[in-house]
Amino acid sequence: MLNKRTWALGLFLTLTTALWAQSEFFNTVEFHNKTKGEIYYLFCSPGDSEFWGPDVLGGNNTLDAGGMAEFYISYPENSNTFDFMAIDEFGNTYELYEKEITDGTPAKFVISEDLKIDTVDLDTLEDDLIALEIRNLTGFEIYYLFVSPSDSAMYGIDFMDSETTLPDEESISLLFFKDDTTIDYDIQGIDEDEDTYSFSLTLDPELGDQTVDINYDDMDS
């Protein structure tokens, strides 16, 4: 059965009040839940990708009805498009396609009943998901964490959301859709000193839930 917490600080995440200078290079995106139920899953796909990225709420969080979640988002052009899919506690599925995000204008998207396209069985859906645990073993606090399909030129959403960080030796769990074949994802972490750690990961559905470490050796030169 589902065991997800209401959107809040995750068990492994730490609230930070500092506004780091690097954030000025990212735009922000807000999601407002105007449906009648908690959002259990919120998937994002860059507009130039044929695959869904992981659940941006993380493996243990939900977004309350009437609630809001804010994230930083990274994209290479002045303006790029993204697709979003939300699934609520009743299995109702909502989709937002080709949503444009433009520099200088924070994005705000409302998930509402009129966007409903389908209803899925949540137990069946759970069987179609893979959990990836990402551990921070860099020796530094990670302020931003991006995970995006490798067929995209965009890193997309920061999975730390706009107020949390990933301390050294802690981890975050993300959920991905299983696919018939392996899918490559690009991962980038940015730490408290503005150093970046970048690498690619092949997610193999035959292996089930998986773990990957961000190590000091992954630091970009």
From TrEMBL:
<keyword id="KW-0732">Signal</keyword>
<feature type="signal peptide">
    <location>
        <begin position="1"/>
        <end position="21"/>
    </location>
</feature>
<protein>
    <submittedName>
        <fullName>Uncharacterized protein</fullName>
    </submittedName>
</protein>
